[in-house]
UniProtKB/TrEMBL annotation:
Key words, A-Z: Carbohydrate metabolism, Isomerase, NAD
Pfam families: Epimerase (PF01370)
Catalytic activity: UDP-alpha-D-glucose = UDP-alpha-D-galactose
Domain NAD-dependent epimerase/dehydratase: 3-249
Full protein name: UDP-glucose 4-epimerase
Gene3D superfamilies with a match to the protein in the record: NAD(P)-binding Rossmann-like Domain, UDP-galactose 4-epimerase, domain 1
Keyword NAD: yes
Its EC number(s): 5.1.3.2
Taxonomy of the source species: Bacteria, Bacillati, Actinomycetota, Actinomycetes, Micrococcales
Xref: NCBIfam families: galE
InterPro entries, sorted: Epimerase_deHydtase (IPR001509), NAD(P)-bd_dom_sf (IPR036291), UDP_G4E (IPR005886)
The protein's required cofactors: NAD(+)
């Protein structure tokens, strides 16, 4: 049995691949390297370069490696930019997922773990997001992830697809030297690049109704995330029941101010963040619970905030 990991050369995907291999499962990767890197792949894992929009490539890869399940991590993940590139976002995330599901159906592959997003919730009016929190995505990215979940649901009805979707907010840290978040939009790389360039990092708003006035968000370690992807794959292989979706959340979160202070301590680069105006629509606090995932997917927060920062900084700076 082999698991196809789409986007497996990316920051998150490569950690999932390493977790699969570490658990004794076989993996094969399809990635177009638009944001992934060959250097992120572990040695010996088969790789096919290409897009999930290429159904023929997907089916050839499935045939060549006796694929029995798919962990679908590939996607366009920039929520803010998706507002200005909606058609591209839908093509990559919706059309791509439909083509992948069609290839799976054609080859009789009946199990999928989908890397979804807490962006499906939008800005919920609750302190703790649960799987039952109303879905109200506020970007084409969030909408595309919700549609992806609908596609899986409908394929389950139509052809018996067995599946689950994993929703999460901010993924940070590193479990492998040299594998780091390359996104130009996420907080950790933004702060790291500013410090490495001699610039002062910025906080958007410090007058929120939170303990230190800065936004509180979920931050989870990428290795913990990868463990739960593998646990979901194992349950699907064993024919064990799964919920249609799980939140992978910390339950309490961390503030941007806390993160800035921790980064200063870990890097040894003292700084006082510049305070910029609030970004429109930014809620004070969004944190997800993880009780269902803890029950079924071996989910737990194995890393402290300091450990998240330390591993991320070490991976980025070598």
């Amino acid at each position: 049995m082999t698991w196809l990991v789409t986007g497996g050369a990316g920051y998150i995907g490569s950690h999932v691949v390493r977790a699969l291999v570490g658990a004794g499962l076989r993996a094969v990767v399809v990635d177009d390297l638009s944001s992934g890197r060959m250097a992120f792949l572990p040695t010996g894992v088969p790789f096919a370069r290409g897009s999930i929009l290429d159904g023929d490539l997907l089916m050839r890869t499935m045939d060549a490696h006796d694929v029995t399940g798919v962990i679908h991590v590939a996607g366009y993940k920039y929520a803010g930019v998706s507002v200005t590139r909606p058609l591209f976002t839908y093509e990559q995330n919706v059309t791509g997922t439909a083509i992948l599901l069609a290839a799976m159906q054609d080859r009789g592959i009946d199990r999928m773990v989908f890397s979804s997003s807490a962006a499906v919730y939008g800005t919920p009016d609750t302190d703790l997001v649960t799987e039952g929190t109303p879905k109200s995505p506020q970007s084409p990215y969030g909408e595309s992830k919700l549609i992806g979940e609908w596609l899986l649901r409908d394929q389950a009805v139509a052809v018996g697809l067995r599946h689950t979707s994993l929703r999460y907010f901010n993924v940070v840290g590193s479990g492998e030297g040299g594998v780091f978040d390359v996104s130009p939009h996420n907080l950790f790389p933004l702060v790291f690049e500013a410090l490495l360039d001699g610039r002062t990092p910025r906080i958007n708003g410090n007058d929120y109704p939170t303990p230190d006035g800065t936004n509180v968000r979920d931050y989870i370690h990428v290795s913990d995330l990868a463990v739960s992807h593998v646990a979901a794959a194992r349950r699907l292989d064993a024919g064990e029941p799964l919920e249609s979706a799980y939140n992978l959340g910390s339950g309490d979160g961390a503030s941007v101010g806390e993160i800035m202070s921790t980064i200063a301590e870990v890097t040894g680069i003292p700084f006082s963040p510049e305070i910029a105006p609030r970004r429109p629509g930014d809620p004070a606090r969004i944190v997800a619970g993880g009780a269902l995932a803890a029950r079924d997917l071996d989910w737990r927060m194995r890393h402290s905030l300091r450990e998240m920062v330390e591993s991320a900084w070490q991976a980025r700076t070598g």
